[in-house]
Specification:
With about 425 residues, the protein is an alpha/beta fold. It folds into three domains: about 120 residues, no CATH class; about 50 residues, Alpha-Beta Plaits, CATH 3.30.70; about 200 residues, Vaccinia Virus protein VP39 (Rossmann fold, 3-Layer(aba) Sandwich), CATH 3.40.50. The chain has 15 helices and twelve strands. Strand 5, helix 11 and strand 6 form a beta-alpha-beta unit. Helix 2 runs antiparallel to helix 3 and helix 10 packs parallel to helix 11. The longest helix has 23 residues. It is globular, with a radius of gyration of 23 Å.
Length: about 425
């Protein structure tokens, strides 16, 4: 960055101003996610090289990460982006240097230290709670004493997690000079620094990009070899492919989703991985008639508010509607009701949502169990710590670190 000439620096500053002034309002007006809006911008501006795109992407997402503290200041968007960059990093980008002034770089500091520095710069108080919309707080049920940890994690970009399908891929990472950390309890899970590209390594079928919390869902499901599973909200197929690897070639996975484009992505990934035991079909779990077939296990990774992804998708907290959890709860209950009819006697129903709201987690589970006495929580070991649970688990973002995820493992009582 230090070698950029004045013309390039000026152009990049202008580009950052442009995307902040034109794209931020699109996102904040309950529009598409920031990554989708930015992708459209890049598609229109094909002249932008990888260096420009990397700078604009990093600055854009930093802007949203610290919006709760910078927005009340009323500063120009480029200065807000510069302040956000200072809060996140240990080296200033030349295109933001003028807007940043002579302020200290705060990357690597604690959240308390960052807050104190910002208070000193602007002679005003900042609160951690300001980092999310106040209307959303009532739905978040944090464990006692974990509020500071929650906000500290919220403001840090989590690592990228991989699920390795081949042990040899660790050597590939090492040869590519990509630092990685193995998870102590999930042998296939390794993390690499956020933002590190794997593009040069190609789609070899040796790994899947899959967050640690998502991998934990598959670990809780723990399907037996040669068993028959249904992933009822498969999306792009991360968990369906994980289930397929677990059941083995003699097992079967049925993957359905309401979105044909998501299933097309799942099919492409399965082909790359050489997986042939996944069958896919378009299906609306909430509205379509339940299947008559019964499965050894059914996974309902239900549509949800997605609040558990706020660390990874900082714009999402500003696009969230406080009514989302209650509205999603009703949808989730319908899905669980329909999926439950397809679980064999003695079989397993997994309910998972990447959130931590009361409405979508404990309330959904309590209502479902009240209406379905044939199901009961089945104890399992927390896949990230080994601690025994009573069949229900809330994974918090700081535990990965990664996404927040609620998981319940329910067993259908065997017929008498």
């Amino acid at each position: 960055m230090k070698n950029l000439n004045e013309k390039i620096v000026s152009r990049q500053a202008a580009l950052m101003s442009e995307i902040l002034e034109t794209l931020v309002p699109q996102v904040l007006d309950r529009g598409p996610p920031a990554d989708r809006v930015l992708a459209r911008f890049f598609k229109r501006r094909r002249e932008l090289g990888s260096r420009d795109r990397r700078f604009l992407s990093e600055g854009f997402f930093s802007f949203f990460r610290w919006l709760g503290w910078t927005q009340p200041l009323g500063v120009a968007p480029l200065e807000a982006a510069a302040l956000s960059w200072l809060l996140d990093r240990t080296e200033i980008h030349p295109a933001l240097a003028a807007a940043a002034g002579d302020r200290e770089l705060l990357g690597g500091k604690t959240l308390d230290e960052k807050r104190d520095a910002l208070s000193g710069w602007f002679d005003r108080e900042f609160e951690n709670t300001g980092l999310i919309p106040s209307a959303l707080e009532k739905s978040i049920h944090l464990p006692a004493g974990c509020e500071a940890l929650f906000y500290e994690t919220l403001q840090q970009r989590p690592p990228t997690w991989l699920r390795l399908r081949s042990e040899a891929f660790k050597q590939t990472l090492a040869e590519a000079d990509i630092a990685f950390t193995e998870h102590p309890r999930l042998p296939a899970a390794v993390s690499i620094p956020a933002g590190r590209s794997l593009g040069a390594l190609g789609s070899s079928g040796q790994f899947e990009v899959q967050d640690i919390a998502s991998q934990a869902v598959g670990a809780v499901a723990a399907p037996e070899k040669r068993s028959d599973w249904w992933d009822a909200c498969a999306g792009a197929g991360g968990k369906a492919l994980q289930l397929a690897d677990a059941v083995g070639r003699d097992g079967k996975v049925f993957a359905t989703d309401v979105r044909p484009e998501a299933l097309a992505n799942c099919k492409k990934r399965a082909r790359t991985d050489g997986i042939r035991n996944v069958r896919m079909q378009e299906h609306d779990l909430a509205k379509d008639e339940p299947f008559t077939k019964e499965f050894d296990g059914v996974l309902v990774d239900a549509p949800c508010s997605g609040w558990g992804t706020w660390s990874r998708n900082p714009d999402a907290r500003w696009r969230s509607d406080p009514r989302d959890p209650a509205q999603k709860r009703n949808l989730q209950l319908r899905m669980l009701h329909n999926a439950a009819q397809c679980v064999k006697s003695g079989g397993v129903l997994i309910y998972a949502v990447c959130t931590f709201t009361r409405e979508e987690t404990t309330e959904v589970l309590e209502r479902f169990l009240t209406d379905h006495s044939e199901f009961a929580p089945e104890p399992f070991a927390h896949p990230l710590t080994g601690e025994l649970t009573e069949g229900v688990l809330q994974i918090w973002p700081w535990e990965g670190p990664g996404d927040g995820m609620f998981i319940a493992r329910l067993c259908r009582k065997a017929a008498a």
